[in-house]
Amino acid sequence: MSTNEYPQVGTGWAFPPTxxxxxxxxxxxxxxxxxSTNDGYEHVIDALELHVRTLxxxxxxxxxFGADADRYVFEPRTPxxxxxxxxxxxxxxxxxEPRVIVDRVHAEPAGAAQERIDVTVxxxxxxxxxxxxxxxxxxxxxxx
Length: 144
Description:
Helix content is 22%, strand content 28%. By secondary structure, it is of the alpha+beta class. The model has no long low-confidence stretch (mean pLDDT 81).
């Protein structure tokens, strides 16, 4: 999906930032490497993941940015921890990502993976109201 389908979300750096070569003409002068970018739906997904994985207070100009989800790394996989993690992710996205409407955030232990909690975010890109889901795995080191 591209900017044509979601013109309101814009274009930005792909995450993580990568630089790729530009096709040079044989015998011509070399051209600088090109920064990879994305737009539309992929741009929103990168922004959501970046937002959720950022620690609150780590950005000087936007100290409220982030979900602080890394604080759950050494927590056990209990229903209470899953609920708090889902609530932190929901709050961060509702407050900090105006391009999406968050319909539901649900966190649950990831079955056979003993230390992982999967956070599912059901969202719509604001203008088109299309329902989308994003699953972000978190690894918790405590016993369940």
